Amino acid sequence: MTTKKERVFSGIQPSGDIHIGNYMGAIKKWVELTDTHECIYCIVDDHAITVDYDPALLPQRTFDGALAVMACGLDPEKCALFVQSHVPEHTELTWLFNTVTPLGSLFRMTQFKDKARNALQRALNTRQGGARKTALFQLKNIGLKMRDLMGDLHADVDELNPTSPYKGEQELVLTELVARLNDRMGAVMQHLQVGLGVAEASVGLFDYPVLQAADILLYKAPWVPVGEDQEQHLELCREVAERFNRKFGDIFPATQRIRGETAKIIGLDGKQKMSKSLNNTIGILDSYEEIERRLKPAYTDPRRLRRDDPGHPEDCNIFALHKLFSSPEACAEIAEGCSQGTLGCLECKQRLAVSIDTHLAPIRDRAETLRANPSRVIAGIEHGREQASRIAVETMREVRDAMGIGKNALAKF
Known about the structure:
This protein is mostly helical. The protein has 3 domains: about 5-110 and about 205-265 and about 375-405, 3-Layer(aba) Sandwich (Rossmann fold); about 110-205; about 275-370, Tyrosyl-Transfer RNA Synthetase (Orthogonal Bundle). It is about 60% helix and about 5% strand. It has a 3-stranded parallel sheet. A two-stranded parallel ribbon has the order 4-5. Helix 4 crosses helix 10 and helix 10 packs across helix 11 (about 230-250). The radius of gyration is 26 Å and the shape is globular. The relative contact order is 0.14.
C-alpha cells in the first residue's frame, strides 16, 4: 500500500532576479522535497502588488520567476507550480480570515514595521517639490523638538540647588534619567517614522501576513520550508487556523516550519541578508565574468589587513559561501591557507567565482533552453494551476459551508 505523502507549501515573489541566496536558502530545498512530499509551490504575484510596482513589468517578472525555479531543477510533473493570482480562492480565503484575525496581531508584525519605514523612504524619494519638502520638514521638526526637550532636561540637572548636601547624588540620578530618556526618545523617533510610514503603506501590505496564512491553509499544508525570518508570520498562521477552527469547526492544520540545514545567506556586503534591493547578491543566471566582478569588492575578514596576515575563515563571509559552493576538500585547503596567511583574499574570491560558476552553469543552460521554448513554462504552470485549483475549490466549499455563506447555504430554502 502506498503511503500518502505529507503536503508542503511555499511561494516566491516575482520581485526581481532570483539570486544564490534564494537558491541555496529555499529553491534547492524545494527541489529536494519533491522526492519525499506532495509539494505545492507558487509565484506570489498577489503579494508583489502590495507595494509600489510597474504593472507593465510584472507579467515578465512572473514568467521569469517560474522559468528560474524550473531551471533550478523544479519539475512541474513532480509538484504543483503555479501563479498565485491564477487561483482566486487565495484572495477569497484572505478576506474570510480577516474576519477572525485580531487587529493587534497584525500590528505586532515586525516585518510590517520595517516595510512601513521603507514605504516612507520610497514616498520621500518619489515626492516632488512642495510635497517632498513638507514631509522632510515634518520629520526635521520632530527631531528638533526632541533635541530641545533633551536640552531642557540637561538644564534642569545644572540648576539643582547648590546648597543641597545630596547635590552630587541627585546629579547622578538625574544624569542617568536623562540618558535613559535620550534612549527612549530615539525609540520614539523610530516609532514616529513607522507611524508616518504606515500612512504611506497600503492596507494590502498590512494584511500581507493574512494572505500568507491563506496561501498555506488553502491547501491544508502542515509543512512550509521557510527561513527563521518568517517564524512570526507562521505563528500568525497557526493563530488564524486555531481561531477559525474554534469558531467554525476543525478544518485547518497547525502549520510548522521545515527547518533546513542552510542558515540565512548573508549578502556580499557581509552585513545583511542577501537581497536584490540591497544590491548585495549574485544572480543564478549571472555569467562567470559578472560573478567575478561582483565578488571583487565583497566584504571579507575585517581583522585581516594585509595579504600575509593570518586570517579567520569562520569570520569571513566569503568562506561561508565557499562552504555552500566548494567541495569539503577545497574548503579545508582554503581554511588552512587563509589561517596561515598564504592565501590572499583576492585569490580566495577567484576560487569562489569558479565554484559558483560551476554550480550555476547547468542552471543557466536549462534557463536558456526554457527561454527558447516559453510554451514549456506556460504549460508547466497551467498544469500546476489545475492541480492547485482542485484542492482550493474543495477547501473553499468546506469553508463556506462552515461559515454559512455561499450558494449552498441557501440550498435548503
